[in-house]
Amino acid sequence: MALNKFEKSKAAMARGAKVLGGGTNSNFRAGVSPTPLVIDRGEGAYLIDVDGNRHVDYYCAMGPIILGHNPPAVIEAAKRQLDKGIIFASQVEAEFEAGELVQKLVPCAERVRFAGSGTEVVQAAFRLARASTGRNIIVKFEGHYHGWLDNVLLSVGPTAEAGGPADAPNLVPGSPGMDPLAAKNVNVLPWNNLEKLKERLSKRDVAAVIMEPAMCNTSAIRPKDGYLEGVRQVCTETGTILIFDEVITGFRVSAGGAQKVLGVTPDLCTFGKAIANGFPVAAIAGRADLMDMMVPGKVVHGGTYNGHPVNMAATVAVLKELQKGDVYKKIEKQGKRLMDGIGTILRDHQVPNRVQGFAGIFHVALGTSDPITDYRDSLKADKARYVKLTAAMVERGVRSLERGAWFLSAAHDDAVIDQTLQVVEDSVRSALR
Predict the structure, then answer these.
(1) Which DSSP helix (H) or strand (E) runs through 132?
(2) 270, 327, 346, 416 - which has most CB atoms within 10 Å?
(3) Omega of the bond prior to 34 within 30 degrees of 0, cis?
(4) Which are the contacts of 31, defined by CB distance < 8 A and separation ≥ 6?
């Protein structure tokens, strides 16, 4: 198999380093081995880079691409709105239609508001929780990511040494330059440990608990049996607002999100990524009494680009497609086949591994075969060895995230999975022997 070359991508990244701070517009796109790719276009399940290499895409834009790249109905909806205008500082009917679709699909969505990014709607959820409870403290969990702002980029990916005791994690800033006062009212706990949460909430001074209902930023970890139900109960008993961050899981694991699949309804929930198949849309949804606090003279939530007409038109088109259910049937079939195939190949080559998660978002870890149930378990994985595997795969035409996550879209069909498994086989032989 001829290996891909990336000379034009490397040259373009060198150009970018002279223009963009750090050479990119997001830190999460930098430092990829053997080089960050510069993409020319996307087609279905594939990306074509500036060197002309064709890659099966399991980044899926880090989660947004659920229908495949450039789905015709979504592109046409956006074009129709562009013909009418770009933005008006007013409402358009597509906002209401998109909101009605979210209400129909998502269990907690008595009311909805749209914004531009997951980071933004997390902050709106915090503000609503504090306003409604009169309390200030937010509880988050080690290993969970809820945006890059100072009051929440805490204990997302610490080393075991920096994190301290597993049952009482340290509060670890995620970046230089963060305001230490922003973390004053944030507490960090271990996830999947109900007793620790009950102990903390017993003081009845916590405004909100925020979590990914399934921990997809770290190792695609499902909650333990009874954990979410227990969290829901203790939050209700102590008057604490329960916030699910479904920026990844929402509209990816099902049209109703992880809350629909797992059967636990939060008070508030944040969405993004797959809600609009790559158009910059996020949403906060939840109880009407909380959401209706966002009126003039009460809780402020604004944004010039919230409910952007073009993005709302795309959102409507995406949600109409997702509510049919066919997308999830396709992803369930192909995702399970891919998960099983990767695990089998690795075992056949005597590579300890753990493949876990959902069909549409799963995680592959090397160096351990034990179940990964919390952040500290994830640290057992051999991440350096996994990077070698992803570098070998991208040279052979399959692009997957170096952190171990695999995203699928409805465009990943039998032929794509066949190609992928052959590349995994060849890459394991080359990189992990």
Answers:
(1) helix 118-133
(2) 270
(3) yes
(4) none
Q: What confidence tens digit (pLDDT) does each residue in 346-397 have?
A: 999 999 999 999 999 999 999 999 999 999 999 999 999 999 999 999 999 9
Location of structure tokens 């809780």: 299
- Number of neighbours of residue 85 by Cβ within 10 angstroms: 10
The verdict on whether 167 is a catalytic residue reads no
Q: Which residue has the tokens 């306003």?
A: 131
Q: Please tell me whether residue 187 adopts helix, strand or coil conformation.
A: strand
Query: Is 10 in the active site?
Result: no
Tell me the C-alpha to C-alpha distance, in Å, between residue 229 and each of 51, 225, 256, 339.
50, 8, 17, 28
User: Are residues 275 and 283 in contact, defined by beta-carbon separation less than 8 angstroms?
Assistant: yes
pLDDT in tens, 157-192: 999 999 999 999 999 999 999 999 999 999 999 999
One-letter identity of residue 319 = L
CA–CA distance, 171 with 188 (Å, rounded to integer)? 6
Distances (CA, A) of 125 to 68, 186, 221, 291, 386: 30, 14, 23, 9, 36
Q: Is the dihedral of CA 257, 262, 263, 265 positive or negative?
A: negative
Residue 153, number of CB atoms within 10 A of its CB: 20
**Tokens of residue 362, six digits:** 């799963």
Q: Which residue in the list 260, 273, 330, 375 is annotated as catalytic?
A: 273
Q: Count the Cβ atoms, other than its own, within 10 Å of residue 313.
A: 27
Name the active-site residue from 58, 145, 328, 375: 145
CA nearest 62: which of 343, 399, 292? 399
User: Catalytic: 292?
Assistant: no
Question: Are the CB atoms for 210 and 146 separated by under 8 Å?
Answer: yes
- What was the pLDDT predicted at 325? 87
User: Among residues 49, 57, 245, 267, which one is catalytic?
Assistant: 245
